[in-house]
Amino acid sequence: MAGQNSIFTWVRDHKLHHTYSDTDADPHNSKRGFFFCHMGWLMVKKHPLVIKKQKELDVSELLADKMMMFQYKYFLYLYFVLAVVFPVSVPMYFWNETLWSSFFVAYCLRYVIILHVTWITNSFAHLWGTKSYDKRIQATNNNIYWFFTFGDGWHNFHHAFPWDYRMSEVGKFGGVGVLLLHFLAYAGLVYDLKTASPNIIHEHMKKHGDQTGQKMLAEKENLKTQKKIY
């Protein structure tokens, strides 16, 4: 329903982004400027290095996923039904909205909002913010991103520990995305959720975190000291 291409294409590009983050092999390299990493990358031809590295990327686990390949094969049909027909039909049926009103609000406006909320991950969260976990990388923790994604604003953490499904150090309360993953895990649709251990996070922050990261570590140590006292 998000209309951001097939799952296969999205995951492949995301893997490429993490592997070559903020280089010419990154589909939305933030070093090419705000407009490019926000939406311009979708308006121009891919950088030759993106094409080259995309071909070299191992996506065997994606190709082996039958459900993903089904969605990839029938993406346009599924998109038309689930992202256009369904949301446009609901207001018309239940609230007697006109076709044009439903189309422009339930499809066009919704689609534009979803796209830009997604794109701020590539722009705002790679250009402005703090680097509490790793100051060597471009990704940041960004409050604007946090606000519009209902809690998923810890992008520096996500890039420092990409295998951690929580996408932040605050665990299951880290955002709507984390809550959704917990629900899907409860339903048996996702499994093998991985996390970075507190010790790994602590040592990584201590070694690579910026001033905000060092401040966070100091506050944690103070809390530990206070608990020992009481």
TrEMBL record:
<keyword id="KW-0408">Iron</keyword>
<keyword id="KW-1133">Transmembrane helix</keyword>
<dbReference type="InterPro" id="IPR015876">
    <property type="entry name" value="Acyl-CoA_DS"/>
</dbReference>
<dbReference type="GO" id="GO:0005506">
    <property type="term" value="F:iron ion binding"/>
</dbReference>
<keyword id="KW-0444">Lipid biosynthesis</keyword>
<keyword id="KW-0472">Membrane</keyword>
<feature type="transmembrane region" description="Helical">
    <location>
        <begin position="74"/>
        <end position="94"/>
    </location>
</feature>
<comment type="similarity">
    <text>Belongs to the fatty acid desaturase type 1 family.</text>
</comment>
<dbReference type="GO" id="GO:0005789">
    <property type="term" value="C:endoplasmic reticulum membrane"/>
</dbReference>
<dbReference type="InterPro" id="IPR005804">
    <property type="entry name" value="FA_desaturase_dom"/>
</dbReference>
<dbReference type="GO" id="GO:0004768">
    <property type="term" value="F:stearoyl-CoA 9-desaturase activity"/>
</dbReference>
<keyword id="KW-0275">Fatty acid biosynthesis</keyword>
<keyword id="KW-0276">Fatty acid metabolism</keyword>
<dbReference type="GO" id="GO:0006636">
    <property type="term" value="P:unsaturated fatty acid biosynthetic process"/>
</dbReference>
<feature type="transmembrane region" description="Helical">
    <location>
        <begin position="173"/>
        <end position="191"/>
    </location>
</feature>
<keyword id="KW-0560">Oxidoreductase</keyword>
<dbReference type="Pfam" id="PF00487">
    <property type="entry name" value="FA_desaturase"/>
</dbReference>
<protein>
    <submittedName>
        <fullName>Acyl-desaturase</fullName>
    </submittedName>
</protein>
<keyword id="KW-0812">Transmembrane</keyword>
<feature type="domain" description="Fatty acid desaturase">
    <location>
        <begin position="4"/>
        <end position="162"/>
    </location>
</feature>
<keyword id="KW-0443">Lipid metabolism</keyword>
<feature type="transmembrane region" description="Helical">
    <location>
        <begin position="100"/>
        <end position="122"/>
    </location>
</feature>
